[in-house]
Here is the input.
Amino acid sequence: MSSKLPINLEDLLHQRKVEGDRIEYKKGWNPDPIIRTICAFANDFENLGGGYIVIGQDCDEAGVPIFPPSGIADNQLDKIQQELLSFCNHIQPAYFPKLSVELFEERNLIVLWAPGGENRPYKAPKAVTSRHKDHNYYIRRYSSTVEAKGEDEQELIALTANVPYDDRYHHTAKVEDLSPQLMTNFLRLVDSDLADQASELAVKALGRRLNVVGGSDEAIMPKNVGLLFFSEHPRQFFPATQIDVVWFPEGAGGDRFDEKTFEGPLADITRDALSYIQTNYIKQTVIKHDDRAEAERYWNFPYAAIEEAVVNAVYHRSYEVREPIEIRVTTEDLVVLSFPGPDRSIRMPDLQLGRAVSRRYRNRRIGEFLKELDLAEGRSTGISKILKVMEENGSGKPEFETDEHRSHFLVRLPIHPKENLAPKVDEKTSVKTSVKTSVRILELMRENKNITIPDIAEAIGRTTRAIEMQIAKLKEKGAIERKGPDMGGYWEVNEKTKN
Here is the structure.
């Protein structure tokens, strides 16, 4: 029943990667409150990813763990595991957390990992040890387990079988589409003890330990989050899972642009896109003053703000939407665009002030992995951090934009008022890229006048956004014309116009 945790135990106990309200410490084995809390984590009312219960760990009145822990006696470990298995059968429907027996500071701990369940809502007995068992729904409210009543109960019931997209099974993929090497690399990066055993485990077993596969052994399937992080080519399962960085040397309305596309596992493309931006578009200016010893230093764009905006887009975008994350860089600003927009429970005035707190998260598992990799911090902290670092850098106020339908989310970071962006990239690249793309578009339209923009984008290996921009320029030059309606129409190439 016991297995190693896929995260670092010390980080968990010190709340470094998992928020405190997703961890419950229990000095000893007390079945009634523990079963209620397991039920609450399984219901995952706010799509936070469930939580952890650490048995044998003391804490103070504020919920801060006390070290060394009290621990569990050796002769109690088997008894607790057997009773836990029996009591979890009383949760309706039955739910069993993942259990790990750990040794920390020479004390035994039992760690229960209770991720959000697939069959919510769950009920648990108020007192699992009593003969008469009164079942109720339980949810987490901040750092406490409470009974769901009234509107909360109705809302929980409405979430029946509503599993977030990233935690669902992908029915057309196979477990073999997951890379054991990528999973092992992740375990090493987060310093999990499971990394030492990973090479000895079959991909199915390793996937179960990471909770990125599920189902019976006869019909085991990977989860979307597993394919996003641990498949070599996530785009074959989730079109437009990519980050496009576009540089406009003449501004967004100019004829020239240079585009760099990042594809691959989610953590890799996040890091690679950020590294590319840092290398090519970020610079620091130092101004020395005669009247004081300290020099004035500022960045054209503070990296920490860009990082928050990009990671926020990766975390909160929908992977059902066939639109990439787009990062546009001009001499005036840096814009991060993702689809769709924030939850309707977030008010735009609160968002602008950095006070927005999402009522329910779109991707509960993606956030977990990003936090484990130190790419994301605590929930609802991204916007406030962007505001803070922009102000500290002396930059203008960032802008956050969506529409009434919440179809997109845009973060605009203005360049420092004293700075002009001098790109480190070769501007000839943007000219060549633009010309080559235009020529190929015309060739494809000659071959097939009914070709669609997505088909052109796929054939050329560019984004639909980039193709739309090039087509708009070709229309302005009179090189092409659209005949008939958008649906059912066709392209006509003017052969007299030069490319």
About this structure: The chain has four domains: 9-161, 164-237, 242-414, 428-493.
